[in-house]
Amino acid sequence: MKQKLLLVCFLASALFTYAQDLPSNPTPGKCYVKCITKDTFKEVTETFQSSPEYTTLTVQPATFKTVEERVLVKEASKRYEYVPAVYETVEVSYQKREATSKLNVVPATFGTSSNTYETYPKTSGWEYKILEDCPSVNKDDCVAACFVEYPAQSRTVNFTTLAADASTTSEPVPGRDATYTKRVVKTPASMREIEIPAEYKTITRQVVDTPARTVPSTVASKSETITRTVLDKKGGISSWEEVDCELLDPTVLPIFYELGSARLTPASRTVIDETILPIMNDSNVSVEIRSHTDSRGNDAFNQSLSQQRANSVVNYLVSKGISRSRLTSRGFGETRLTNRCSNGVECTEAQHRRNRRTEFRVINSN
């Protein structure tokens, strides 16, 4: 298989981008790969802090103690009680009839006297007098004028005179006394103030004996060491070399699966151990695992199932110590049948089994 050439070369089929640099004067019927010097790597160890130092706090709950306490349940107050007045009976003297005087009347006494009064004054004057036996018809002819004087007229009037006016004489009349009973206040009414004492009772209650607190504790930081691979020297392309053409074509492995299953049988593992595994162990080649299904079942399901089957082979090789970076898996479902047994075509179980296959091909050389 010319495994020496596979150690350092890419397959020509995978390098279409380098078509302009194909080898000069090639031999008909030969295949070539372009050899490269691979990148070289080295491992470095670094220590990093995976966890910082920090403080944890542990809470210690408060503790309590029971204490007795005398509490007021009823406040002190005052009550007022009415005390009625106290009376006593006393004799009270009073003047039932006041003293006075009795008046005796002394009648007035009288005398008699008289006075003369001019009732008409003395008068005089001419008086005309018709003569009796006047012979004239005209009476005026028989008028005589006489100057006549008349004496004053008087009258004597008797009257009573007051000899002594009426008067009184006083005669004392003594008063009259009496008594009556009277209830008088001996002790006035009052309000008596009575103290009502407060009432207390004893209660128990819990008080904080020790307050809650936190106890700090320091958690030390943690460090971890990581080993990582870094690029030590960059590789490069060197020259074209001849390679066995058979390795460029997919190689069908006699790995078959049960219908609808991606599980590797013991026989399938033996095939892998005898075919792919020696190539992977004896060189640094990278391979592509290709898996296919028959046409039965849903197309999308078959596509997923084929990918699972290819993954099963890759996972098995990894379990044998092969680096996953050297392995590629691809599922083709029922898109690349090896016979006529497509959807709706009646085929035997053996014909369908041939389509449930797994292939591998070398895709580059490291």
TrEMBL record:
Record protein name field: OmpA family protein
Domain of life: Bacteria
Compartments reported by the entry: Cell outer membrane
Main localization (coarse): membrane
Organism encoding this protein: Winogradskyella litorisediminis
Pfam families with a match to the protein in the record: OmpA
Signal peptide positions on this chain: 1-19
Family annotation (InterPro entries): Bact_OuterMem_StrucFunc (IPR050330), OMP_bac (IPR006664), OmpA-like (IPR006665), OmpA-like_sf (IPR036737)
Keywords assigned: Cell outer membrane, Membrane, Signal
Domain OmpA-like per the UniProt entry, residue ranges: 244-366
PROSITE patterns: OMPA_2
Taxonomic path: Bacteria, Pseudomonadati, Bacteroidota, Flavobacteriia, Flavobacteriales
